[in-house]
Design a protein that fits this description.
By secondary structure, the chain is of the alpha+beta class. Helices cover 28% and strands 30% of the residues.
Length: 152
């Protein structure tokens, strides 16, 4: 009977999606051309990697990725969070096993969500070549003084 109580308590304290899917996910990042610096913002510690790469993030994080490379325009890709089929099933499983507490755990950890897009793929656009500055306007020269006439 004691064992049954311990099992029932642990089921109620853990969310189903938290148990089946975990609270982190892997985000794949790539670019054309490769070798672009990708800065992932929204994590406890901002992370930088060189494409192609991947990072492990918390499912409940609000993320954006900034892509930078010399000679190319920087790009920022915001990631959204969506409830996926597997996450929804785990979240709904709380009704049977985890109860309201399990639903609260899943909601707090974001275990029922996935970041989109994943993989994150960008095509970098070349920077515009620097424009040549127009030449500075020249000041007009004063007219040359008339030469004295000879023979007068």
């Amino acid at each position: 009977m004691r064992l049954f109580g311990i099992v029932a308590l642990s089921v109620m304290l853990g969310g189903c999606a938290s148990v089946t899917r975990g609270t982190t996910e892997n985000i794949s990042i790539s670019s054309t051309p490769s070798g672009v610096e990708a800065v992932v913002s929204g994590m406890e510690v901002p992370t930088t990697c060189t494409t192609p790469c991947s990072v492990v993030v918390k499912r409940n994080a609000d993320l954006s990725i900034t892509f930078q490379k010399e000679g190319y325009e920087p790009q920022i890709v915001p990631l959204s969070r969506d409830i996926q089929t597997g996450g929804a099933a785990g979240f709904a499983g709380n009704l049977l096993l985890g109860g309201v507490v399990g639903m609260g755990v899943d909601a707090a950890t974001g275990a029922a969500t996935d970041h989109k897009p994943n993989p994150v793929i960008v095509t970098m656009q070349p920077s515009a070549p620097p424009r040549a500055r127009p030449p500075a306007p020249r000041k007009p020269r004063p007219p040359a003084a008339a030469a004295p006439e000879a023979g007068t």
